[in-house]
Amino acid sequence: MLQEKMEQSGIKQALKELGYDYEQIFGGLSSKLQAVYASYSWKKITCMKEGIRANYVIHGIPPKELWEDHPWEEWFFQFDKPHHHVLFTKRQACCDQEIFIPEEDQEHPSEICGRDWYYYEDDNSRPYLTGL
C-alpha cells in the first residue's frame, strides 16, 4: 500500500538518491500506519538553499482534515547531515521552532503555504506517528 505509492510516485527512489534507506524509515510500519501515510500527499520539491543535497526535499503532507493531529513532515540532507522536520498547525510541547511560509513560496508544497507552522527537528528519520 504505502510502498507501492512511494514507488509509483518516485519518492522511494528520491529518498535513496538523497542517501536515506526506505526500509529503515518506513519499514515495519503497522498496517494502520501504512494506511495513514498512504493517505498523505508525497512530493519531491526543488530547494536551492545552500548545502541541500541533490537540490530537493521530500515532503509528506497529510490530508487537510487530519492537520489537527497529523504533522506535515520533510526529509532532506543539508551539508551532508540528514534532517527530518516535523511541522504542526498548532504549537505542540515538542516544537521549539516556528516558521511562516508565504503563499508565493516555491520551495514548499503549495497546500501548506500561507500560514504559520510549529516544528522541531527530529533526530530520528522515522515518521512521527511511529513514536505515538
Please, could you describe this protein's structure?
By secondary structure, the chain is of the alpha+beta class. Helix content is 22%, strand content 30%. It has helices spanning 2-9, 11-18, 22-26, 31-38, and strands at 41-46, 56-61, 72-78, 81-88, 97-101, 115-121. Strands 1-2-3-4-6-5 form a 6-stranded antiparallel beta sheet, covered by helices on one side. A hairpin with a 2-residue loop joins strand 3 (72-78) and strand 4 (81-88). Helix 1 packs parallel to helix 4 (31-38). The longest helix is centred in the first third of the chain and has 8 residues, at 2-9. It is globular. The model has no long low-confidence stretch (mean pLDDT 96).
Roughly what fraction of the amino acids lie in strands?
A: 25-35%
Instruction: Name the structural class.
Output: alpha+beta
Spatial gap, N to C terminus: 21 Å
Q: Assembly state here?
A: single chain
What's the order of the H and E elements? HHHHEEEEEE
CA radius of gyration? 14 Å
Side by side, the strands of the main sheet go 1-2-3-4-6-5
Number of strands: 6
* Helical proportion, percent range: 10-25%
- Major beta sheet, specifics? 6 strands, antiparallel
Mean pLDDT over the full residue set: 96
Shape: globular
Unreliable stretches, pLDDT < 50, 5 or more residues?
Answer: none
The total count of helices amounts to: 4
